[in-house]
UniProtKB/TrEMBL annotation:
Keyword Transcription regulation applies: yes
Residue ranges of domain HTH lysR-type in the record: 1-58
GO molecular function per UniProt: DNA-binding transcription factor activity; transcription cis-regulatory region binding
Organism: Litorilituus sediminis
InterPro entries: LysR_HTH_N, LysR_subst-bd, WH-like_DNA-bd_sf, WH_DNA-bd_sf
Pfam family, one: HTH_1
UniProt entry tagged with the keyword DNA-binding: yes
Protein name: LysR family transcriptional regulator
Family: Belongs to the LysR transcriptional regulatory family.
Length: 280
């Protein structure tokens, strides 16, 4: 099976439109359709339901998405290991929970780009459980989570403690006046503290998985949320958000994990030294 067939399949699975996929991949629509048909023939299943105006993934198509992503990553790692990739470059496969990308990793990637010019970055987003599996199977070199796993072969290193502050679109709001609060998922240890603090006030109205979604939501619809200080700083400076008077602050630890016997240990440690936040 050719890798370009899987790449084409993934693009169509994301856009669900042959024309858009063709434009994104700089191919003709006929080439896109031909590749999808060839892949379906090789697998002996239909990957897309074509009975409606808009394409829809079949059950088999949904199952292939995960495997296709893993096979492409493995192919990229294989090229490096057998020397097909340029000998002057190194590949670093980074995985993380979605919310951690928003909180701290964007700046870190920029620092790697500026300071380690021989490193080729590959990034993926997974659930915490899947991240652990990806590191153990060597599909991901380094992963970032809120809760580190206690696994013998994995090194866990705290890379940041992110301050979380309660901010509101309403100025001079006191803690006892809080309502229309968006509860953001920062992991069990922090979530439980916030829930206990607001259990009796019934202030929590919505639950959202990512701080970026919560930020955009309250800026548009008004309300309040616990957000990373560095994410809300600019909005506070411009007067769009305001710290809630008397609200406690929390800290969310972020951990990097990687295999103890990884052949990229030196590269991983060099990359972590560029982390933009104080580690302790």
């Amino acid at each position: 099976m050719k890798i370009e067939l899987l790449t084409t399949f993934l693009e169509v699975s994301q856009t669900l439109h042959v024309r858009v996929a063709a434009e994104n991949l700089y191919l003709t629509q006929a080439a896109i359709s031909s590749r999808i048909k060839q892949l379906e023939e090789e697998l002996g299943v239909l990957l897309f339901d074509r009975t409606q105006k808009r394409l829809k993934l079949t059950a088999e198509g949904h199952r292939l998405v995960k495997h296709a992503n893993e096979m492409i990553i493995m192919w990229q790692k294989l090229k490096q290991d057998v020397g097909i990739a340029e000998s002057s470059s190194s590949q670093l496969f980074v995985g993380s929970m979605m919310s951690i990308w928003d909180i701290v990793l964007q700046d870190w990637l920029q620092k790697i780009h500026r300071n380690l010019d021989d490193v080729h970055l590959y990034t993926q987003t997974y659930s915490p459980l899947e991240l652990r599996k990806q590191v153990i199977s060597r599909m991901v070199d380094i992963a970032f989570l809120f809760e580190p796993p206690f696994i013998e072969d994995i090194i866990s290193e705290k890379v940041a403690t992110v301050p979380l502050q309660l901010v509101s679109t309403e100025k001079d709001l006191a803690l006892h006046q809080v309502n229309n609060m968006v509860m953001v998922d920062y992991g069990e240890s922090v979530n439980s503290q916030i829930m206990r603090a607001h259990r009796e006030s019934n202030a929590i109205r919505h639950n959202m998985s990512q701080p970026r979604i919560a930020l955009n939501f309250i800026l548009e619809a008004s309300g309040c949320a616990y957000l990373p200080r560095q994410m809300s700083f600019e909005h506070i400076r411009k007067g769009k958000l305001h710290p809630v008077v008397g609200a406690p602050e929390y800290g969310r630890d972020i951990y990097a994990i990687y295999l103890a016997k990884s052949h990229k240990t030196t590269l991983i440690q060099d990359a972590l030294m560029l982390f933009p936040y104080v580690r302790n």
